[in-house]
Amino acid sequence: MFIFALRRLFAAIPVFLVATFAIFWGTSEIVDPTDRLATCQTCSQAAYDRIIDLYELDKNVPLRYASWLGDFVTGDMGAATSQGERPVSEIFWERGRNTMLLALPAFFLLMGLGAATGIYSALRQYSKGDYAITSISYLGLAMPTFFFGLLLQVVFAIWVPKYLGVKPFWASGMHLESPLQFIRSVTLPVITLMFVLLAGDSRFIRASVLDIKSADYIRTARAKGVSERKVISKHLFRNAMIPAVTVWSLDAAALFGGSLITETIFSWPGFGRLAIEALQAGDLDLLMSISFAIIVLVIMFNLLADILYGVIDPRIRYD
Amino acid sequence: MANDGLLLDVSDLNVSFKTKKGMAAAVRGVSLRVERGESVAIVGESGSGKSVSSLALLGLLPKSAQITGSAKFDGQELVGMTQSELQAIRGKRISMIFQDPMTAFNPVFTIGDQISEAMEVHGTAEGEAAMKRAADLLEMVGVPEPGQRVNQYPHEFSGGMRQRAMIAMAIANDPDLLIADEPTTALDVTIQAQVMEVLADIRGETGAAMILITHDLGVVAGSADRVQVMYGGRIFERGTTNDVFYDPLNPYTRGLLSSMPRVDAIGERLVPITGAPPSILNMPPGCAFGPRCEHKVAACAAQPATLELVKPGHETRCHRTAELPAYKAVETIA
Predict the structure, then answer these.
(1) Domains (ranges, CATH) in chain A?
(2) B213-270 pLDDT per residue, tens
(3) How far is the CA of A4 from the CAs of A14, A252, A314, A319, B147, in angstroms?
(4) 3-class DSSP assignment, residue B150
(5) How much is the ipTM here?
(6) Which of A79, A111, A243, B249 is 20 to 30 Å from the Cα of B108, by its Cα?
(7) Which residues of A touch B (CB under 8 A)?
(8) pTM of this prediction?
(9) How many whole angstroms from its chain centre is CA A203?
């Protein structure tokens, strides 16, 4: 298992190189750090030269990439020009933590609710509960995140205060003064983050449980005299976890990398917002570091999923 | 009790399924008596209702199934029993062996876990004692190195070994009745004989009665005391294995026998039964076999025949029993 993990990490190196080069090249084509001086009347030629020099814009893309890579592997992630020249690592800690405040509760709720609604829906196929869950799922799949987020803001920040006279949740900004304020400020963005993913997860888990519940081994368990409750909690659940791990690893990569849309709508100073700020400011070093972080997250969650498959399903063994 | 040798007494069992096109009757008025230690085979094509009737006894059918009639197991009425009452009987007093050993074990638990679970749910053995007994059971059914095999997963077993493990699981609680639903259908011919031998040995040791459900008459010949032939959800003929094989009364049974290859009839052509079995959604009003029968007359299409006793212990369901020619088995070379 350990050897397998190590081998997978080594195999990730070429993936990392190709992905970072592609992103580096792409951003160089669309982002010009000198743009920010174009409208500046008072900026001197010296300021312009400084930017050219900082990003080595007089060299070609492969050379610039090689230079970035050299700095990067020796631990120099550069200073973020768009964030007051603060070191990238320091900004990462701060923004990453803020994203975690949304992503962690969203992820655990997503696993719990996705499994619960999916399994319930499959076991009570064509019941009223199944139809309700299915309808809400389709709504979630069909509704864009930005629309759903705005809808929540309208309902809970405008209509509820106006007609009921209370304001239960913050519709914008991060409030960490007290646990209560924290809950009031994360509720709406967490629901927004979760809703679309939850709809897909619930449908996916429903489909796999439908397969499993009519499997021969489920009938065998019943024929042995195992109680219905234990048939579901032991024989069915363990098998349903195998495909669920796949969707959860995809969810994790999507959530922990930060959400551009949700963080923007709710003015949440997380990782997703950082990416947009860096892009708008033409902050190349910061953009590259963000790309790197997201690549690492995706590779890590895939590896974790592969290891979990082996733990749950004895037919999959790595040696 | 009046008849203390009688283990299972099923009478007038009906099973129908609610479908979009109305009620589909899968089993119609089936009766079945199994004495202690006896082996009864139920033979029929797919869709004849042979598996459904046995699943109905244990309450293993989906909720859309409606079951009427009576099935007394050791004096207890099974039809209408609650799920928890049935759970106490399943795997303890009546065990099932299923057709496909490749899919009948849960892939994520070890064979030992699954066999000992059968004991743990009924409280006959726990923990290490159950594992120890699981290994002993595997040894009984001829699985080599049972001590290691208990810790293996189903995918590490071959088909034949899995079916042996399935039998080991079924006898874990020393049941009075084994229901073997096509136990050899998914196996190689060479393995089939071995598995039937294991079943016979096990029954010799435990004295369990058996209901053997199969479409394979070859399997029946060596391992059943009595045979019931089913078609279209009804019993068409029943009697001792010898009577049914050597003096079949019903045209359907005769058709089945002449469509079966025999080792002692080299060079004979097989005679298939023409046509296909009826759909349970669209049963002929008269005799279910009527449309395919070479002896049919107008009366056959009008109404179904009743099961008649022709001689002691040998019954058939046919309007024309008296008029049928005597059965002539294929010429044997011996």
Answers:
(1) 88-312 (1.10.3720.10)
(2) 988 888 888 788 899 999 888 888 998 888 888 888 888 888 888 877 766 666 667 7
(3) 17, 22, 16, 6, 29
(4) coil
(5) 0.86
(6) A111
(7) 215-217, 219-228, 230, 235, 238-239, 242, 312-315
(8) 0.82
(9) 19
